[in-house]
Amino acid sequence: MRERLTESIVLRPIEQSDVKMIYKWNNDEFLGLWQGCEFVSLSEYQKRYDSGGFNNGLLQLLIIEVDEPVGLFVMKFPRPGLAQLGISLLPNFRGKGIAYKALQFAIKYIFNNYQIERIEADTDIENSIAAEPLIKAGFKMEGILRKYRFHHAKFHDAAMYSLIRNDFELIRKRKEVKNGKSCAQADSCRCCKEC
Fold first, then answer.
1. What is the DSSP letter of 99?
2. Whole-prediction pTM value?
3. Separation CA 116–CA 83 (nearest Å)
4. Any domain includes 186
5. Contact, 5 vs 102, CB < 8 A?
6. Are strands 82-89 and 118-124 parallel, antiparallel or unpaired?
7. Which of 8, 58, 173, 193 has its Cα between 20 and 30 A from that of 79?
8. pLDDT tens for residues 112-148?
9. Is the dihedral of CA 166, 73, 150, 32 positive or negative?
């Protein structure tokens, strides 16, 4: 899978030549204040790559902006009907809309290609920057998961966000109406104020 999100942003599979860089990203500067580092050697990262390209049980893609790797995108399918998403970006690429573009692609890709009813993502309760693209993409905050994440030597609360298939369909209908297409249920539709 190689997907162009914008003129300058691409999602692509992790390649052999990326392993050392991803290993170097396993630090507090890249992961930030809200995620913990893995204590894994470079040779362990290499073994993971060799046994499935970092894609055993999940899909990990590199986020590229203008030919420069700037982050990781992760998609997991832990059980039927459920997808989980995660995004990590280098500090100087946060807050530029890259995470939102990756989310937009993932949402459409998942709902259009899989029998998934729910996509979810969690963030550290203090990480409002990570919550912004989720909310903008239509995710709803469901609640607080107490002491859910462990990083920086202690447990932290997390906010759980989700987007269910019905919400995705309503958002798509709203966009179609705004773009001049009429809603198929115009007489009885409650999906938007435009109908």
1. H
2. 0.79
3. 7
4. no
5. yes
6. parallel
7. 173
8. 999 999 999 999 998 888 899 999 999 999 999 999 8
9. negative
